[in-house]
Structures are given as structure tokens and as C-alpha cells.
Amino acid sequence: GIVRIPLRKHKSMREALREKGIELPYQDPALKYQPDEFSSS
Amino acid sequence: DYMYINNYADYWNTPQSFQVLFDTGSANLWVDSIYCSTQACNAHTKFNPQQSSTYSANGHTFYLPYGAGSLYGTFGYDTVNVGSIVINHQEIGLSTNEPGQNFVVAKFDGILGLSYPSISAGGETPVMDNMISQNLLSANIFAFYLSRGGQQGSVLSFGGMDTNLYQGQIYWTPVTSESYWQIGVHGFEINGRETGWCSQGCQSIVDTGTSALTAPSQLIGHIMQAIGAQESHYGMYMVDCSQLNNLPTLSFVISGVALPLAPSAYINQHYQNGHQFCSVGITPTYLPSRNGQPLWIFGDVFLREYYSIYDRTNNRLGFASA
């Protein structure tokens, strides 16, 4: 009764952008959970 | 003598396949679509609703900010097949605008959120809720095993937990807010000594869509001091790689049980130009949880060490050594 889905790990978007020479500024990871504050910021 | 029904193929579409990020930190399902032509959308496989006889639009639009990347889109319904589980009339978001560079480098074409429906944008019914209401699972549970090394080996299980992927006992803790997979953290230890930093209560959101372990900003300085880490550029904290064996074990006390993280779990080793660098996989969060308590995020750094089981029937989370 268990359905197993194999997952593949990739670099985070931040890491992938860094390798392209683009450094994202710090952004609070918790903004993801407070979309209203994210929109206003 | 015989009449064959031979036109069944007229009503059959080639399935459209997408790579999605399975994210316990959000609730919506969306994929890139032909309605979007930004650089980020053009870098991915796009859903074409005109090539699906089972698709229907509902006309509602949405905006989804993830912090790292955001998008605009429109909702519709279609049949969704996830690992051979077929969900009928699943609401899906079709991107219409993915601004910026963030999603350009993403290896996924969309995100499949596994949180509770209360935080779903547009009131979209999450995939897991449709799996439950359509009785598609033998148990209303899913579980993540995140491999420690390499691209391969990680597994998401629907309908139960895989006893081959964890060792020892499962420690259960109740969900404190049926929105995210949020739990209470009742203590925080460094090398087995209780710090008291969560004595008034802390919360943690268990999020497979976040890479790091994040700590409340008021604690980050104390934690880095205990680790002996120095702040580097771009807010990263670095340690001397030769000292890895001397770094402390950090433990979270959850429902009376201490879950340790060894240095090997929270230190990332990088190699560049023949040099080894060691960064701390812990970053600060400045926003508190919705009940005002300090907020941690148990991202992949934590989840590689602990098999995590998400139980919707009992609204509880289980952890066992991976």
C-alpha cells in the first residue's frame, strides 16, 4: 500500500545562482510563511 | 461479423510530465505553462492545457511568493498522476508570469505543496487532501527520506512509512498549527547541556523546500559562538575545517526527546580552486512564528538526519533516525 517516489537532489537556487556569479541578497527564509509581509516588503 | 470500437484513441492524450519540488512548506500545486514566456518559464517544460482533453479552467488567478522566487498564475483542473496515484479533478496552478532570475536556475518545472489547505493560495485543494477525499491512500500519511550523499537515494512515500529507511523508534509530536507542518520545540541543547533558550517555547516549521536549518535571529549569535564560526560575506558563517571533530552536537528537545545533530549534519564542505571551505548550514530568521514564539525551520539539514513522517489522520509528525 505504499507508493514510493524516488527524489533527485539538486543545488538550491541560491547555490546555483552563486555559481553563475549572481549573489542573492539575504532574505528572511520565514517570509515564505508570511506572504502578506513579503508582498509589502 | 464483428464491430470493433476502434476510436477510443480519439479521447486519449499523451500525458504531460513535469519535475516538481515536493514542498512541505507550501500547499499549492503549480507548473510552468504556455501562458508564461518569461526567461524562467522558457527554461522549463510547459503545460499546454490545449493538449489535454481533461483540463478545465476555473478563471481564478493567484500570486505565490516563496521568498526565493515568486510567480503569478491562473487556476484550472486536470487529472494528476503522482507516482501512479491518479487524482481526478485536481486544482492546478498554471504560471502566467515568473519574474526574475530565481526560477531560471531551478531544476523543477513546478512545486507540489504538501501543507494543510488553510494556507493554500486561492483556496486551492492541495494534492494530499484530494488523495485523502478520493480514498487513494492506504493510510493518510506521507514520509520523506533525504539521502545524505549525492543526487540519488532520496524517497518520498505516500500511504505509509518505509521501515527500511529509518532505524529505531519513531518519536511523535503533535502539529501545533494545522497550517504548515509546525511543531513545538521545548528545549535546545549544546553538547547535551540545556541552554534554556526555548524554555518559554519555540516553534519549528518542518520544510522540505528549505535547504538550511534556520534559527531565530536572537539565538544565532550564541549558536555561532558555541560553534566557533565567523561571519563571512553574504551572511554565511564559516568554520576552520580542521576543527570539525571538535564542534559541538546541537540537539532539539521535542515532546521530551532530544534529537541530536552532529557537526557532520550542519557543516557543509565545499572545494574551490583546490581549497576546502567549511560553512555552517544554519541561517537566521527574523520573523517569529504566528503565536509569537521564536521560529526555527527544520529544512534539509535537519531532515537528512531524521526520517520524517507526516500523519494527517492524527495531525502529528514523526521523526526517526534516517
Outline the structure in words.
The complex is a heterodimer of chains A (41) and B (322). Chain A has 41 residues and is an alpha+beta fold. Helix content of chain A is 32%, strand content 12%. Chain A is built from two helices and one strand; from the N terminus they run E-H-H. In chain B, 9% of the residues lie in helices and 42% in strands. Chain B has helices spanning 39-42, 127-133, 217-227, 263-266, 300-303; strands at residues 20-23, 29-31, 56-65, 70-82, 85-97, 110-113, 141-145, 154-158, 167-178, 181-185, 187-190, 193-194, 202-206, 213-216, 230-231, 237-239, 250-254, 257-261, 267-272, 275-280, 282-285, 295-298, 306-311, 316-321. The chains are: A alpha+beta (41), B mainly beta (322). Chains A and B meet through strand 1, helix 1 and helix 2 of A and strand 3, strand 8 and strand 21 of B.
Continuous helix count of chain B: 5
Strand content of chain A: 5-15%
Largest sheet of chain A: none
Largest sheet of chain B: 10 strands, mixed
H/E series of chain B: EEHEEEEHEEEEEEEEHEEEEHEEEEHEE
Radius of gyration of chain A: 16 Å
Number of strands of chain A: 1
Shape of chain B: globular
Helix content of chain B: under 10%
Strand-residue proportion of chain B: 35-45%
Give the total of beta strands of chain B: 24
- Taking the alpha carbons of the first and last residues of chain A, their distance comes to 45 Å
Determine Rg of chain B (CA atoms, Å): 22 Å
Percent in helix of chain A:
25-40%
Oligomer: heterodimer
Unreliable runs of chain B, pLDDT <50, ≥5 residues?
Answer: none
Structural class category of chain A: alpha+beta
Q: Enumerate the spans of chain A where pLDDT stays under 50 for 5 or more consecutive residues.
A: none
C-alpha termini separation of chain B: 63 Å
